[in-house]
Amino acid sequence: MIELRNVQKSFDNDSTLAVVDSSFTVERGELLGLIGESGCGKTTTLKMINRLEEPSHGSIYIDNQNVLERNPEELRRNIGYVFQGIGLFPHYSIRENVAAVPTLLEWNAEHIEERCREILDLVGLPIDDFGDRRPSQLSGGQQQRVGVARALAAEPDVVLMDEPFGALDPITRAELQEEFKRIQKELALTVIMVTHDMIEALLMADRIVVMKKGEILQIGTPRELINSPAHEYVKEIVEMPKRRADDLEKLMHP
């Protein structure tokens, strides 16, 4: 479904590579997590897939089509994008926010209304109750749900997510993680999700790509990373959830 072949990225003729010779595939219906510390190249990798950044070297394919041979605007309209800042249009209603991409694609009004109703129901925000509200009238968790709905509105096969739940409180975050995983499976979406949270990656991803300083250190299922870390850094970050649990246990039972 998605394939990166020897992709590299440098900025402003800098000899330092932000992404170093990266290659991986994402199967249809798979949720792939990209994880690593800040500045490791995971968001840059994500942005190259929909050409918000252009690779300096290598090729990226979606459904066997080279994305560099496609019109960037057309490409992006067929890829859902969810990010931490949400980025809803404040002067638009919730209905209008969700309808933004279908409107650009010139769907007819009846189809747009039907899809808005369907997708808002899917994320738990019925259009009759929330459709005419403004983003400022919603909680942070509800706004993030609208962001997900907007990304899914044009029926994309591919969804890119950049720290989509990072700004939420822990309870809301856990609810949305579970809800999105259900939606992803129900719609058979192909998803690449950037996160810095190993617990989130282990809970949500079918496979995980671990990056450090622009390089891919290991690709594997959560079980493979836990049981057979291929690098000391991988071993360190998969042990973080256990250390956090141990610290919590000490606080509860000093």
Based on secondary structure, the structural category is alpha/beta
Q: Distance between the terminal alpha carbons, to the nearest Å? A: 50 Å
Largest sheet, strands/sense/barrel: 6 strands, mixed
Q: How much helical structure, as a percent, in the residues? A: 40-55%
Strand fraction equals: 15-25%
Quick check: average pLDDT? Answer: 90
Total count of strands: 10
Show unreliable segments: none
**Oligomeric state of the chains in view:** single chain
What's the tally of helices?
A: 11
Description:
- The chain is of the alpha/beta class.
- 42% of the residues lie in helices and 24% in strands.
- It is built from 11 helices and 10 strands.
- It has helices spanning 42-49, 72-77, 94-98, 100-104, 109-122, 127-130, 140-152, 170-187, 198-204, 222-227, 232-252; strands at 2-10, 17-26, 31-35, 57-62, 65-66, 79-83, 158-162, 190-195, 207-212, 215-220.
- The strands form 2 sheets. It has a 6-stranded mixed β-sheet with strand order 6-7-8-3-9-10, with helices on both faces. A 4-stranded antiparallel β-sheet has the order 2-1-4-5, covered by helices on one side.
- Strand 9 and strand 10 form a beta hairpin.
- Helix 5 packs across helix 7.
